[in-house]
Write a structure and sequence with these properties.
single chain; mainly alpha; 75% helix; 0% strand
Length: 225
């Protein structure tokens, strides 16, 4: 779908340039929103501050059922930041003339690696190396030679799962929208815009909740496991 028109493509036709430029654009949007939300803090929030506080409370509420409120607040900066980046990276591609950075495997793989490295780091920091990797051995020592490699493969597959799920869905959405705009550019795509916006929210939610789930599995290791 590189032949689809993008505004930044008028400057440089290189797909690498278009991808990096849209990534920077998403970063600027997130920073501007964060600045607007915190520039004039009020006791009774309004405008962007009110919207951002509602978003953060929603993220905490989502994580509270997975890791508990204390840990949900602790990991809020990571999960909330990922949520903002993923959402705007998803939704920007719905606007004609722009491309979703999350439809590029390089971005989704990077985000997945950040989550993978961080939750393993937290698991080791909280539980120690021995206890953390000990829970990879399974409930019975006799099963350890079988369970350990299975657990390692399972954890590595999370990187593939996180990155390819987001990449595949958003890439498919972009291709679907491109086809709709070529076949019926005036009226029918309005329905598509609504559907793709919903998918942008859904894929953001899935990425965020899985981040909480992986963190919970790393730091909340029971004594009996």
């Amino acid at each position: 779908m590189n032949e689809i028109f993008t505004f930044l493509g008028l400057i440089n036709h290189s797909h690498g340039f278009i991808f990096v430029s849209h990534m920077l654009l998403v970063g600027i949007i997130v920073l501007v929103i964060a600045k607007l939300a915190t520039s004039k803090m009020q006791l009774v929030p309004s405008g962007v501050q009110n919207l951002m506080e509602a978003y953060l409370e929603g993220v905490i509420s989502m994580g509270k059922d997975v890791v508990g409120e204390e840990l949900a607040r602790k990991y809020l900066p990571l999960v909330a930041t990922i949520g903002l980046i993923v959402f705007f990276a998803n939704v920007i591609g719905i606007i004609p003339g722009f491309e979703s950075p999350s439809s590029n495997i390089n971005m989704t793989l990077l985000l997945a690696l950040v989550v993978f490295i961080y939750y393993n780091y937290e698991g080791i920091r909280v539980n120690g190396v021995v206890k953390y990797f000990g829970h990879f051995m399974g409930p019975m020592k006799i099963l350890a030679p079988l369970m350990f490699p299975i657990e390692i493969v399972s954890h590595l597959s999370r990187v593939i799962s996180l990155s390819f799920r987001l990449f595949g869905n958003i890439k498919g959405d972009d291709m679907f929208l491109g086809v709709m705009l070529m076949l019926a550019p005036w009226l029918i795509p309005i329905v598509s815009f609504g559907l793709l916006t919903f998918m942008a929210f859904l894929q953001t939610f899935i990425f965020m909740i899985l981040t909480y789930v992986y963190l919970a599995g790393a730091v909340l290791i029971s004594e009996d496991h």
